[in-house]
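Cross-check.
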Amino acid sequence: MTADADAIPLLVTLGHTGDSTFNLRFPLEYRDEILSLLDDNQIEHGTVLELSAATELAIEAVKVLGAGGGLAALASFYKTFAHRHDGKRVVLKDGDEVSGLSLKQTELFLQKRAIEQADADGKWRQAIAEMRQDETN
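Predicted model, tokenized:
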């Protein structure tokens, strides 16, 4: 997590392989606001537990890949959150911030992450298929 007091990490990371989700990682102090915004944008979500003694960020799995509002809804969520915290930088990923991006650019950023997630999901499905094939031989 960044030590910059003017930055709010609202990181988008790849979700669990095979479930078409992203994980949002953020400081606990923003939990209620983030959950409310996810609900407002009709984004399906659920809390993820991280079994680590050094956990600094809450994790919420969001299902936007192949879902209702999809990436456009998540981009809108990010832009709304950034607007509410004008004067602070909302960090998506190291070096990438929402404040400098338009709504369309935010959606394109998320699309790149979706491609990464789809690639990871595809590799996982391929590995499972190969394992099943080995079991039948």
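The two ends are 47 Å apart (CA to CA). The chain has one domain: 7-130. Passed to J.P. for a second look.
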